[in-house]
Amino acid sequence: MALPAAVSLGDLGVTTAHAAPAQAVEHAPDTATLVYATQSPAAIPAHFVPSSAVSNPVAESVEPSAVEPLPQAAPVAHATAIASPNENGTYIGQTAGQVIGGVTGAVLGGTVGAALATPLAGPTGGSAVPIGVVAGGVIGGVVGTYAGYYAGSFIGSAVAEQAPELIPNVLP
User: Fold this and answer.
1) Would you kindly state where each structural domain of the chain is located, as residue ranges?
2) Distance between alpha carbon 15 and the CA centroid of its chain, in Å?
């Protein structure tokens, strides 16, 4: 059998097609007539499958007592929850308390700051009102955030102790 082969001549850029030399085969066994007899299927190499085994499969009878039962799989390790419902409730309460307390404190602080700065609006030319609103909002927001943190923590813990099923598992 001859196959075409391409040969490059280096930097000349010329390529010439040549016929590949034919290889002589002295003797090749006929795989259709191979018979591989063995008692154990494990002795058959993984790469060898004779055609007679595919076309004429041999069924072996196996005694029921010789069949080994499959081993039961071990259960997968299950990690326990690190946080309890009480810890989750406290965390949720603290977070909600900070947000609600901060917003409420800022609004109330701004209102109180404006109310206190209104009597000073006349003598200061009206500049006391915005300063009072901003200062009152900042002070009220800080106080409300801390108050909300502790109030939320207390309320969240109380809810978790009374009804732990209401608290989602947010902590690992």
Assistant:
1) 105-163
2) 55
